[in-house]
Write a structure and sequence with these properties.
By secondary structure, this protein is an alpha+beta fold. The protein contains eight helices and 16 strands.
């Protein structure tokens, strides 16, 4: 387990290789860093650029970086810019125009950045590869945006161990990882980190090893968790079917959302069916106690896709068994009742 401690790093401290633990509220970055430690954006296919040369008509261009990482500029033709920062690309373009112009002054702006591809793994509701847009109106996506895009943190996720891994800006270099602890900030107060996510980043949400009720409630109430989860409640409830309950809601919340247990239901044999990460179903039988605290044996927190089966009580089972046993005789019983109502002898019904 990676321990988050009080570590102070200068902005220009190198962070390569092994993961770096950070203090809550401290957003460590990697990749290309400027004088203040900020991440330097590198151009790639899909970026839209605007270029012009000062006081030179006919040298303006609005271009998009092609799939091969190049742009096409007036009088220069194809210029490779993939992997370059804006400053580096501007210098390449300036050097190119310097061969045909005297002291060209080039302006290069990023008009519209490409969609950001990020991989999210671990204990989130929908792990996978996601595309997020970065715009001047909405700003750059953050770690919170990425977790929400993946459906939110799962009930088993650890909000104190969110790891962001960023590939090296140098070809063949080692990626750098940074771990963020949001649980401590939300629980104890303080300034929450707002790490930005860039193209090629990957986010890992680790499994919580041990969470108390207070931590579970804190996680469920945060914007890292999904607003609601869907649980299927079947059996002896008043409104069986799929219900939506808040994230990390206890078993009792789903049963009450289904109208509660009917008179035929048993509150001692409630089955919780849950499919694990390997696709194996797990069935746990428990009693139902709406007053039990969260995470107790009779009131565990629910997860997305859980199935609750409210079984019949003993009296309902006996009654149903008798009905099934008498069902083949029911037509005969109904006819005999009609004969009695008409005052006819039942012996005629029996063929006697």
């Amino acid at each position: 387990m990676l321990v988050v401690g009080m570590v102070c790093l200068p902005f220009d401290a190198p962070m390569h290789g092994r993961p770096v633990a950070v203090v809550p509220g401290m957003a460590a970055v990697n990749g290309t860093a400027g004088p203040n430690g900020a991440y330097r954006y590198r151009l790639g296919p899909g970026d839209k650029l605007s270029m012009k040369v000062f006081k030179m008509d006919g040298y303006e261009a609005s271009v998009q970086v092609l799939s091969d990482g190049t742009i096409n500029l007036p009088r220069l033709g194809t210029v490779p810019v993939w992997g370059l920062t804006l400053e580096e690309a501007k210098q390449v373009i300036t050097d190119g125009y310097a061969r045909i112009l005297r002291s060209p002054l080039v302006y290069l702006d990023l008009v519209n950045p490409r969609p950001i591809k990020v991989t999210v793994t671990g204990h989130v509701e929908r792990p996978g590869v996601f595309s997020l847009a970065a715009s001047k109106e909405q700003g750059w996506p953050t770690l919170v945006d990425v977790i929400q895009k993946a459906g939110g943190i799962a009930a088993t996720g650890d909000l104190s161990r969110l790891e962001v891994t960023r590939p090296s800006a140098v070809q063949g270099g080692e990626p750098t990882s940074t771990t963020y602890d949001f649980l401590t900030v939300l629980r104890d107060g303080g300034q929450a980190p707002t790490p930005l996510i860039y193209d090629g980043d990957s986010v890992t949400v680790y499994q919580a090893e041990s969470l108390g009720n207070a931590d579970m409630i804190t996680t469920a109430a945060s914007n890292f968790a999904p607003a609601t989860i869907k649980v299927n409640v079947i059996g002896e409830v008043r409104k069986p079917g799929v219900v939506s309950v808040p994230s990390n809601a206890p078993l009792s919340r789903a049963i009450l959302a289904s109208g509660g247990i009917t008179r035929r239901g048993s509150d001692n044999t409630v089955d919780l069916i849950r499919v694990d990460g390997e696709g194996k179903p797990m069935v746990k039988t428990m009693g139902f106690n709406p007053k039990a605290i969260l995470s107790s044996p009779t009131n565990p927190p629910l997860r997305q896709g859980d199935v609750l089966v409210i079984n019949r009580n003993q009296l309902a089972r006996v009654t149903d068994a008798l009905e099934d046993a008498l069902k083949p005789l029911s037509p005969l019983v109904r006819v005999s009742s009609i004969f009695r109502l008409l005052g006819l002898p039942v012996s005629e019904l029996m063929g006697l």
